[in-house]
Amino acid sequence: MTDRKRALASVSASLGRRDLIWAGLRADDIEAISDLDHVAGGFSIVGGHDRGGAVPSLADYEDMSGVRPDLDSWDIEDHLDAPASHEFREAILRRLSSDTALLPYRPSSFLSSLLFARRDRCLDLGMFGPHQALFEHKPWVETHVALMGLPHVKWDYVADEEQFVALRMLREGPIVLRVSRSSGGAGLVRVEEPEGVTTNWPHRPEAFIGVSRFLEAATPVNIGATVWHNGVTMHRPSVQLIGISGCTSRPFGYCGNDFGAVAELEERIIGSIEESVTALGKWLRGFNYRGTFGVDFLVHNGCALFTEVNPRFQGSTHASSQLSSEAGESCLFLDHVAAVLGHDAPKVRPLRELVRETPAFAHLVVHSTSAPAYIDGMRLGQLFRRHPLTCRVDVSAKPRVRTETGGVVARVTARDRMTDDGFDLLPSWSAIVNQWLRVACG
Questions:
Q1: What are phi and psi of 124, to 5 degrees?
Q2: Which of 50, 148, 363, 379 could form a disulfide with 413 if both were Cys (CB 3.0 to 4.6 A apart)?
Q3: Is the whole-model pTM more than 0.85?
Q4: pLDDT tens by residue, 23-79
Q5: At a CB cut-off of 8 Å and minimum separation 6, what does 298 contact?
Q6: CA proximity to 88, closest of 115, 70, 110, 69
Q7: Nearest CA-CA partner of 22 in 36, 7, 6, 3
C-alpha cells in the first residue's frame, strides 16, 4: 500500500460516516483530495458551480453577490450584513445539519460561529477563528522568531508619530513599509524617495507599521508543512512568483509557485529552511496549533531569511498536493486532517531528497489589473491550453460576474519551469500573458 493509500484509509476510518465539506476561497483547491470518498462538496468564494470538477460545488459567494473580489484584500467578515453573506451563511448551516466535518482553507470567526451552532453534528477540522488570528499578526510572530534565533528579515516597528525613523532608514537605500496583517502582497509597498514615506504610510488603528530595508536580488521561497501532536512534516518547497508584470498590479503581489526552480538552491539552503520550519512547527505546537501551515523565506546572500508564517492552507497548496498525489504520497490536505484528528506524524524524509525528486512543475495566477469589468477567463484559458506543457486551467473568471481589480482571471498549472528568480516569467509563459493583455485591452 502506498503512503497515500495508507493516509486515505487512516483518515477515512477516523471520519467514519461523516461527509467532509470544504469551505475555502477557491472551489478547485479541494480537487486535490477528491480521491477521499468522504469529500461531499465545497463552499467557496470564487470558482464554484459551473466548473465541472470532481467535487460538487454547494454554494459560491461570487454567484450570490455578482462580484469576484480581490481575495488578498476582501474578507467576508467585513461584509456580514450583505445579502449574499446571509444567503451564504444559511446555505452552510443547512448542509452542516447532518453528520459532517468542515475543512476550512482559513479558520475565521465567521466559520467558528457556524460551527458552534452545529457542534452536535459537525466536526471542526480547523481552529477557533480568534485563536488562529493570533498567528496572523506578523510583528508578534516575528518577535518570537527573533527570540528563537532563527535567521529572519529584520523589521523595525515604527509609530505613526515617528515617521522620521523610516526617513532615516531610507538614507541607506530603498525600504519596505508593511501593515501587521496582510496577505498575498497586499499591505506592502517599496519606498525609494522621502515623499513616498508620507504618501504610502498606511494609517491603521494600531498606529504603527513594520519597516525594513529592501533586499536586492533575493529569491522568494515558500513551503507547506504540518504540525502534529508528535512531529512536524514538510512537503516540497517552491520559488514563489511575486509581482509578475501583467499578472498583478501589486509590486509584491502573489502570482504562483515554481516547484522545479528550487533545484537551483544549494543543499545547505534547503537544510536551513528545513531547520527553521521544524523549529517554527514546534513553536506553533506550543501554542496548541495543529494542522497545516506555510512559511515564506527570502534567500539573500546565501541565507534563508524567515519572512512570515501563514497559519492556514496557501495559494501553493493545490499545486503541492497535486505533486504529492501523483507521487503516491500523502499531501498537505490529508496531513492536515490527520493531524487535527490526532493521528501520529508519519516518518519524515530529508527535504533535500524531496527537492531532488521534484519534477518541473509550476502554477501561475493571473489577476485582473484593469478597472472592475466583466471578464471571460475562459479566453485566457484557451491561450494557456495552446502551450504543450499546460496540464490544468481553473478558477476562471465568469463573464456574468464582475471581476474587481485584483480578482483572479485564471490559474494555470504546467509541467514546466516558469521562472528563474521569482520576479519574471520565462519567455514562453510571458508571451501568453502579453498576448492576453492585448486581447483584454481590445
A1: -85, 115
A2: 363
A3: yes
A4: 999 999 999 999 999 999 999 999 987 666 789 999 999 999 999 999 999 999 999
A5: 153, 215, 218, 219, 220, 221, 304, 305, 307
A6: 110
A7: 36
